[in-house]
């Protein structure tokens, strides 16, 4: 891929670790810190460390797993640990984990000593195709997602599909949602290919991952700071983020992974696209059918819907008091900066629930 200078170097080939070793040597780091969580440390760290070629001193930092730890309090603990262990301006931070880890780790590196360099090694499908790419870093503010952060691309991203063997089916589904989104906002042919999942083999997976990465990097390259085009990557996310936050704090609803919530958001925003952005009813039904063949349906009550709508008021994409949606004119043709009323959002839930 021919990427602009501000983009991350994406490493995926048969010699990923040799490429990583060469990068580390060229970078001339003083030492290496590896940030991981309890799950990743158990399942991925030994494989990664056994293949890491370096003579530099290596420190491993471990945090508890889960979205609830993606906050400024965790950052305080890590900043202090890094200072106590001798991290300096030329320390290289390697974030080894899923989307929560790469979001938090990128923010940690971007703010420690006013910014040190970092590499993302995503270990989940969602992180490989989305979270680790594009430079968005940050933490949550209470139950409000990604309210504090900066845009700062990693120096490099290593894509190693070997890590996917450690994932449960729920985590693979979560990543699939972002891949489906890439087709919906950018490439109808890619959407059609992903829609026929029962005909795809594991051998197809790496090519699909590469396609999603290429779609995201192409969009980000044209609009790093999300002033215009990059907004299209938020399709399904306005309602999806609110649903993710609401379910996380609701005693009677399942805790959803990011991609599972985004999948629901994509169905809801497909309906809004029919009402507001000229998407055909047939296309909206197709989106719903494809999503629900891979993601279990969740029932939302009227009270749930009202509370979710209230959470939309805090969405980080809002502007001038308006809730901003990305909708679809057609599959592969997004429209940014759309507004929807509560009545329309309620009808979207009726469409999803029906």
TrEMBL record:
Keywords for the protein's UniProt record, in alphabetical order: Cobalt, Lyase, Metal-binding, NAD, Nucleotide-binding, Zinc
Gene Ontology molecular function: any one: 3-dehydroquinate synthase activity
Enzyme Commission number, as recorded: 4.2.3.4
Residue stretches making up the 3-dehydroquinate synthase C-terminal domain: 175-318
Alphabetized InterPro entries for the sequence: Dehydroquinate_synthase (IPR050071), DHQ_synth_AroB (IPR016037), DHQ_synth_fam (IPR030963), DHQS/DOIS_N (IPR030960), DHQS_C (IPR056179)
NCBIfam families named among the record's database cross-references: aroB (TIGR01357)
The name this protein goes by in its record: 3-dehydroquinate synthase
